[in-house]
């Protein structure tokens, strides 16, 4: 446990972290990869180039300092990040390496401000936080390894079917190479793929949502091809999967993970709000919910640029026909003329406050997934409709972030 004196020192650094947090975490990753190049096999370098990982870590460090008096308050975040770490293969041996480089980055960035007293306090605090992560993640490793169909590390799966769902999204159906069973997962969870791409020095690890309901002998992931745009290069792994991975190929996969999940036994109406490929975890949820309770009150509103990039149109339309309790609406930013003729087309433009006000029940649980600007818009609109914050659930693709 931390002494009160140590907690006081950590609390005193909160204003400094607010200013220098991202500079510290940027320098941390530079040091980490210089000193331990093997860590490049774990961390997503695209997120590094975009600054997303640095920002997410800075927010986590700031939160730890802010809540140091009651460190248990950050346990939900520890569990959320722990799922990602377990999928990526982070182990207890990594934490001393991370701590050494994080404290080193603090010293470099803060200079004379990083006194021995402050660094000593942060070393103690890091030890407590690392122990929390290690404990949570070890429990997760044990749980997935011992459950029916579970496994340790990365297991080889064979691609048994590849389906183009839209101009930019392709589904991959995969089954275990050993012919064994697969672990049941919670709707909303994801898989981690470990892929060696010819010409690249380091292994790539990426996480993709499971887009079908649990209980089948295969897994389905649905991947958006990330083309180059706005000065950013194309997605290394997504384009490789689209262009090079075919039926019969092998993918190495970690067991399902993630805490953005739906309890299908809920008695509340459910509203799903998705943008683009954000529909993949929600698709698993809606399938699972309606299988468990075919009469459950569900509203699903999906946004896409136009019909050409809208995946799973037929699948959702068939669900809506089979389940009159499912209200399904489509909003296209730039609809083609034929898009406007679709049975579930609601309006052109965006999912706005007026549409939500008219179409969704207030006493529902809301699940939101899509690009960050989309999620921010949806959460803001729901708050304006006086939806309680504890009834709003959302998922970030990539490093955990903030909608602020």
TrEMBL record:
Keywords: Detoxification, FAD, Flavoprotein, Heme, Iron, Metal-binding, NAD, NADP, Oxidoreductase, Oxygen transport, Transport
Any GO MF annotation of the entry: heme binding
Example GO biological process: response to toxic substance
Record-annotated site: Influences the redox potential of the prosthetic heme and FAD groups: 84, 395
Domain FAD-binding FR-type positions: 152-263
Site (Involved in heme-bound ligand stabilization and O-O bond activation): 29
Gene3D superfamilies, per the entry: Globins (1.10.490.10), Nucleotide-binding domain of ferredoxin-NADP reductase (FNR) module (3.40.50.80), Translation factors (2.40.30.10)
Active site residues of this protein: 95, 137
Catalytic EC class: oxidoreductase
InterPro entries: Cbr1-like_FAD-bd_dom, FAD-bd_FR_type, FNR_nucleotide-bd, Globin, Globin-like_sf, Globin/Proto, Hmp, OxRdtase_FAD/NAD-bd
CDD domains named in the record: flavohem_like_fad_nad_binding
Name under which the protein is recorded: Flavohemoprotein
Originating organism: Sulfoacidibacillus ferrooxidans
């Amino acid at each position: 446990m931390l002494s009160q004196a140590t907690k006081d020192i950590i609390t005193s650094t909160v204003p400094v972290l607010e200013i220098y947090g991202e500079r510290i975490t940027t320098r941390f990753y530079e040091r980490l990869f210089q000193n331990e190049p093997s860590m490049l096999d774990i961390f997503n370098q695209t997120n590094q180039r975009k600054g997303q990982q640095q920002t997410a870590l800075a927010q986590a460090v700031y939160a730890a300092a802010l809540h140091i008096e009651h460190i248990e308050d950050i346990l939900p975040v520890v569990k959320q990040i722990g799922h990602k770490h377990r999928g990526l293969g982070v182990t207890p041996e990594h934490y001393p390496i991370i701590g050494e480089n994080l404290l080193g980055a603090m010293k470099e960035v803060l200079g004379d401000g990083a006194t021995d007293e402050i660094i000593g306090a942060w070393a103690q605090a890091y030890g407590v936080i690392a122990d929390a992560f290690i404990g949570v993640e070890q429990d997760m490793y044990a749980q997935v390894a011992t459950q029916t169909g579970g496994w340790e590390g990365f297991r080889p799966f064979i691609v048994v079917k590849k389906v183009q769902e839209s101009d930019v999204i392709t589904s991959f159906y995969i089954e275990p190479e050993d012919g064994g069973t697969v672990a049941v997962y919670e709707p909303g969870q994801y898989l981690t793929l470990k892929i060696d791409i010819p010409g690249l020095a380091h292994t790539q690890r990426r996480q993709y949502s499971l887009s079908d309901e649990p209980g089948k002998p295969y897994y389905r992931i649905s991947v958006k091809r990330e083309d180059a745009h706005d000065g950013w290069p194309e997605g290394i792994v997504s384009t490789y999967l689209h262009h090079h991975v075919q039926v019969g190929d092998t993918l190495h996969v970690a067991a399902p993970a993630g805490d953005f999940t739906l309890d299908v036994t809920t008695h509340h109406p459910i509203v799903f709000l998705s943008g683009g490929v954000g529909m993949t975890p929600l698709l698993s949820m809606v399938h699972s919910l309606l299988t468990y309770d075919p009469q459950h009150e569900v509203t699903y509103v999906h946004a896409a640029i136009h019909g050409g990039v809208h995946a799973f149109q037929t699948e959702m339309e068939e669900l809506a026909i089979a389940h009159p309790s499912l209200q399904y609406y489509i909003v296209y930013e730039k609809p083609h003329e034929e898009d406007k003729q679709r049975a579930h087309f609601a309006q052109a433009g965006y999912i706005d406050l007026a549409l939500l006000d008219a179409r969704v029940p207030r006493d529902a649980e809301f699940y939101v997934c899509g690009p960050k600007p989309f999620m921010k818009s949806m959460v803001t609109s729901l708050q304006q409709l006086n939806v309680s914050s504890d009834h709003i659930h959302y998922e970030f693709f990539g490093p955990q972030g903030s909608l602020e």
